[in-house]
Amino acid sequence: RVVPPNVHVYPLLIPKSNRKRILNFLFSFKFISVLIKEFFLNKVFLNRFKLKMWISSYVKYCLGLQYFRKHSFDSKYLIYSYWANFECLSDAFFYDYKKIVRMHGGDFYVSRNHGYLPLRNELYNSADLLLPISKDIKNILINNYSVDKKKVFLSYLGVDNNFEFSLKAYSTFKIVSCSNLYSLKRVHLIFDVLLELSKKIDT
To answer: Is the torsion defined by CA of 185, 187, 188, 190 positive or negative?
Structure first.
């Protein structure tokens, strides 16, 4: 697409091709002490899923450092990670950058990842702003990871944090949800809100 002159589009950080991923990783490989330490402390080698997550994190970590060093981005830029899975942001190389990390569910809850996600404390505490999409994630960040609550901002997906609207009696309206229909998504809350609104209209 055509973008404004002050917008620059760069290639994907991690290639889609597994072959290219491996080649890029080999050429960008460096010794990451914090990941090597975690490999043994968390006994990553004893669990296939942990090992897979750890290797993926190591690849992204090395490619991320190579990518930012190659493009020499000025430290005035904000680095925004839409998913909480870009662990290399905790590296000393990014110390002078302002870092924003959003967390959803699968990229945050350890329980949904066989009990393991790499470098959680390092990622959350090195970020300047954390954007959890739910109150539960916000509370876990503050209470379980000892993150400074001043840098945690609750940011729901798809809505403004504060909004108002009104419905006239006998109005016809439609609400469409693109969510998957399973309990975690709590789609029933849409119905609950509509029920409350209908009660207000009736009164």
So the answer is: positive
Phi and psi at 55, nearest 5°, equal -65, -45
The CA distance from 190 to 178, in Å, is: 12
H or E element: which one contains 131? strand 129-132
Looking at residue 59, its amino acid is V
* Rounded Cα distance, 18 and 149, in Å: 39
For 7-29, b where at least 16 C-beta lie within 10 A, e where not — what string?
A: eeeeeeeeeeeeeebeebbeebe
Q: Which of 149, 150, 158, 142 lies closest to 190 in space, CA to CA?
A: 158
Strands 98-103 and 78-81: parallel
For 66-123, how does the pLDDT look when each residue is reduced to its tens digit (9 = 90+)? 888 888 888 888 899 999 999 999 999 999 999 999 999 999 999 999 999 999 999 9
Helix runs in 42-143, H state only: 48-71, 120-126, 135-143
State phi, psi for 19 to the nearest 5 degrees.
Answer: -65, -45
